[in-house]
Structure formats: structure tokens, C-alpha cells
Design goal:
The chain is mainly β. It has 4 domains: 88 residues, Antimicrobial Protein, Tachycitin, Chain A (Beta Complex), CATH 2.170.140; 77 residues, no CATH class; 64 residues, no CATH class; 51 residues, no CATH class. Helix content is 7%, strand content 29%. It contains 3 helices and 24 strands. Strands 1, 2, 3, 4 and 5 form a 5-stranded antiparallel sheet that branches. Strands 10-11-12 form a 3-stranded antiparallel sheet, with no helix packed on it. A hairpin with a 6-residue loop joins strand 2 and strand 3. It is rod-shaped. The structure holds 2-acetamido-2-deoxy-beta-D-glucopyranose (NAG) (4 copies). The site of one 2-acetamido-2-deoxy-beta-D-glucopyranose has 6 residues, from loops. The site of one 2-acetamido-2-deoxy-beta-D-glucopyranose has 5 residues, from loops. GO terms for molecular function: chitin binding. This is Chitin-binding type-2 domain-containing protein.
């Protein structure tokens, strides 16, 4: 009789329980407080029960990597922001002795709301993302998309939330464990666009994942004066190539050379005035691209090796390979 009802309800709630299956019971005795609804197992967030006519179903299990959300009454991926399950995680402590002890504390599973009700000043990590945390004493709506997650807060990029000290700290000092560690600024929620007119994050900030430390190409702004400054796969920001005072011309960041180069070294297809040596014999040449009489360059082995400007009031004389007075 009872199992017949469950089948009926399973069909109705088909979507929510699509991937879920019944599992063997344990010591926990679920008690329904309403005729129809869901209960989550207090120790195991991936187990839940359906209440039908006030009677709990056998335990149902979310698929691997999913947990049951009390708020949304569905199984959700464990790393989603909508995950309202918090189970305290393994904390490592290294006493000054030679051994390292690992203690696993298994506290009853509480929702964020429940934890904050118990302790109005609690600060604890978000289970999925290492830069996110909950601050029960901060109920203000942030100005970035928080996906309606009350008490949710986020460390400033590139800081991460240290679950041991309950503070945002340098990523070197934070062990994320199972929490996802984002290195891209654009993966932080506060970088995401709130309005439709907002400039996409990757255009505003450079990404540095898998790039070496130092100056790097600004992906999305290749062959412009902009370049990314990277450290430990993280973007410290970007900078702009200086104006070349010697050649009196702007510089662009060359993705090929990994540095700022004058427009005389930037290919034409990237809006540059590249002085082309590929078909030239070794020697000095007068600027034949922007036709400056004082600018000359050296080709060696088919490559541009030197760009020079004659002193003020002089021009380059191809016949003598020398700078001569303008009057001559
Ligand atoms: C929770 O229950 C599922 C399904 O029975 C099981 O695979 C998983 O190991 C349990 N997790 C914990 C932490 O007990
Ligand atoms: C939590 O919020 C309170 C009140 O806004 C604030 O004073 C405190 O610094 C916050 N804690 C953290 C770790 O951000
Ligand atoms: C940066 O990323 C590379 C490749 O993913 C990795 O091997 C390296 O350890 C990372 N460096 C840091 C400091 O996280
Ligand atoms: C200007 O460009 C030339 C040629 O690339 C280079 O040798 C020189 O160092 C640059 N000068 C400045 C001030 O950047």
C-alpha cells in the first residue's frame, strides 16, 4: 500500500527525484511535521525523505556529488551556490610535536539559516567555493549578484577564506580542501555583471591562469598598449605600455615578444608600421613606411635589429649611411 503511494508521488515529483534512488535505512527516524514535504537526513545531506500524508518515505539518495537542498526541495550539485548544506570539514592541525593529527568533526547538518539562528555572530566557509563565506552578523544585501543567498559574503580578489581563522587571507596561507579555488578574478561573484550594460569581466580584467609570472598578453586585448601583470596564476591587474619618447611613437604589447614594442615593430595587420626586413639584405634603410626622413633601421639576417632617429635638425642620408644636416 505505502510503496504504491510512493510510486505515485515519485511520478509526480519525477523531475526532482529523477536521479534519486531508495537506499537502506539507518538509525535516524524521520518525523514528518507536515502532510506533504521533504526532510533531509541530519548527518548526510545526500539523503532525504518524502513526507506523504504525514508518513516519511524510505530514505532516498541523491546521485553522487549531489546534495539535497531544503530550500529548493531538489538534489543539487554539491558545489552550487544554492547548496544549503553545511557539514564541517576535515581540519588539519600541526602541533609542535613530530606528528600531525587530523581530526574530523562531524556536526549535525544545518542549513545556513539554522546555523545563523544558533549563533548570530558565526562566520563559516561556503562549502563549494573557497573565496565565499557566510557572515551571520552581516545581513546587508551586497551590490553583487548573491543569488539570494542570505549572509553570503566574498573575499576581495585574490584573497581566499581561511576556514581555520575565519578570515580572508592570502591564498598562500589558505587550504581550500574540497572547496574550489578560483584563480581568475572573473570567477569571483563580485566581478560578475549585475546590469545588462556592464562591460564583461574578461574585458575589464586580465586573466592569468597558466601564464608565467610577470608581463603577459591581455587576452581579448591582443596588440594594444594593454598587458596583464601576473603572479601565481592570478592577475594583479593590467598596465599600459609607455609612449616611446626616443622614436616619438606609441608602443603596443607584442604577444609574440612578450614585451612592449614600438609601432615600428607591430605588423600592419595589427595596426602597426612594421619595418620589414624579411626580403632585405643586411644594412641600413630609411623609413619607407611612415616616410620620416630622420628615422632609419638596420636589417640583419632578414630581421629588424635596430631602429634609430637622427639628432634634431638632421636627416638620414642613404648614400653615406649617415645623419646629415637637413639643408644638405
Ligand atoms: C551519505 O549517503 C550516501 C548514500 O547512502 C552514501 O553513499 C554516502 O557515503 C553517505 N555519506 C556520508 C558522509 O555518510
Ligand atoms: C561580518 O560582518 C560584520 C558586520 O558587518 C563585520 O563587522 C565583520 O568584519 C564581518 N566579518 C568578516 C570576517 O567579514
Ligand atoms: C599555476 O598553474 C600551473 C598549471 O595549472 C600549476 O602547475 C602551478 O602550480 C600554478 N601555480 C601556483 C602558484 O598556483
Ligand atoms: C623605443 O624603441 C626603440 C626601438 O624598439 C627601443 O630600442 C628603445 O629602447 C625605446 N625607447 C624607450 C624609451 O622605450
Amino acid at each position: 500500500m505505502a510503496s504504491h503511494i510512493y510510486q505515485e508521488i515519485l511520478a509526480i515529483f519525477g523531475l526532482a527525484v529523477l536521479f534519486c534512488s531508495t537506499v537502506t535505512a539507518d538509525h535516524f527516524q524521520p518525523v514528518c511535521r507536515s502532510q506533504v514535504g521533504f526532510l533531509r537526513h541530519p548527518q548526510n545531506c545526500s539523503l532525504y525523505f518524502m513526507c506523504i500524508r504525514g508518513v516519511p518515505s524510505p530514505p532516498l539518495s541523491c546521485p553522487p556529488g549531489f546534495v539535497f537542498s531544503i530550500r529548493y526541495s531538489v538534489c543539487l550539485p554539491v558545489d552550487t551556490l544554492f547548496n544549503d548544506c553545511y557539514v564541517s570539514r576535515t581540519t588539519k592541525s600541526s602541533p609542535p610535536t613530530t606528528t600531525t593529527t587530523t581530526t574530523t568533526t562531524s556536526t549535525p547538518t544545518l542549513s545556513v539559516e539554522e546555523r545563523c539562528q544558533m549563533d548570530r555572530t558565526a562566520v563559516f566557509p561556503h562549502p563549494g567555493q573557497c573565496q565565499l563565506f557566510y557572515n551571520c552578523s552581516n545581513d546587508a544585501q551586497p551590490d553583487w549578484p548573491s543569488f539570494f543567498d542570505r549572509y553570503l559574503d566574498e573575499c576581495e580578489y585574490p584573497l581566499l577564506f581561511n576556514a581555520v581563522t575565519s578570515r580572508c587571507e592570502d591564498f598562500h596561507d589558505v587550504t581550500c580542501g574540497d572547496r574550489v579555488e578560483h584563480v581568475n578574478r572573473c570567477s569571483y561573484l563580485r566581478s560578475k555583471c549585475v546590469t545588462s550594460h556592464c562591460v564583461p569581466c574578461w574585458v575589464r580584467f586580465a586573466t592569468c591562469s597558466d601564464l608565467p609570472d610577470g608581463m603577459n598578453v591581455f587576452v581579448g586585448r591582443e596588440w594594444t598598449p594593454y598587458y596583464a601583470i601576473c603572479k601565481d596564476n592570478r592577475s594583479l591587474g593590467f598596465d599600459v605600455c609607455p609612449f616611446n619618447d626616443t622614436l616619438k611613437i606609441p608602443e603596443f604589447f607584442s604577444p609574440d615578444q612578450g614585451e612592449c614594442v614600438s609601432l615600428y615593430e607591430v605588423p600592419r595587420e595589427h595596426s602597426g608600421y612594421q619595418l620589414d626586413c624579411s626580403t632585405r639584405d643586411d644594412g641600413l634603410y630609411l623609413d619607407d613606411v611612415t616616410s620620416r626622413p630622420d628615422l632609419y633601421y638596420r636589417c640583419h639576417g632578414g630581421h629588424l635589429t635596430e631602429i634609430n632617429v637622427c639628432p634634431s635638425g638632421e636627416r638620414f642620408d642613404k648614400a653615406t649611411d649617415l645623419c646629415v644636416s637637413l639643408g644638405i
